[in-house]
Amino acid sequence: THHYLCNHANGDMTDYIEEAILKQYSEIGISDHGPLPNEPFPRMSIEAFKNVYLKEFRECKVKYQNKIKTFIGLEIEYIFGMDDYYHKLREEVDYLILACHYYSGKPGYEMKSYYDCNTPEKLLEYTELVEKALDTKLFKILAHPDIYMLGYPDFDSLNKICVNRILDAAERNDVVIELNANGIRKGKIRNENGKMVYAYPYRKFWEIVKARKSRVVIGSDCHDPSQLDDMAMAEAR
Length: 237
Prior knowledge:
Blueprint: H1 13-22, E1 27-33, H2 46-63, E2 69-76, H3 83-92, E3 95-98, E4 102-103, E5 112-113, H4 120-134, E6 141-142, H5 157-172, E7 176-180, H6 182-185, E8 188-190, E9 196-198, H7 203-212, E10 216-219, H8 231-236
């Protein structure tokens, strides 16, 4: 679930928690985009994280303690050389979600958008970044691991190798991978065979997940309280 502080979502924690109670959820995790210094796009600021986000959660945790179990987390990019910063964030929240919207497989290299993950070299960079990030053991969940399919819609032999490498990294670090309902909300793309499919969740990716019996959570990735348990979530399930 997201939050108004990320600058591209609606609603505050109360809105999402009350929607979860209405839909008879037993627990909910609030996990807006985490703050990063010099981030390439505007997210929650460090000041807002400390003075608004955490404060709001503490108030909600007490207010709704007899109605639903609540957790606080952050969805965040992995930037090389910042492990100490992530450790400090991890002390403030219940969990961190790794989400590679921007990626670089090597320290010091320019961060690239996942929309441009359109060559074998870039796919390998994305895969290496996920592996290295998960091997820090800082993250509990890997968000939309197949999001790179937006730029790399050909499920070729390299793609299959990279899927298995990503799942290997998740399994050895006890990370749950997320089947993301927001990809369904974004609609379909045309794959290498001319067929209209979801870029993510990408069925062939998840067939490998199923065969391996990897641990999975279905994430709403909602940016509005009305999306918490909508038709996209029903289709994702």
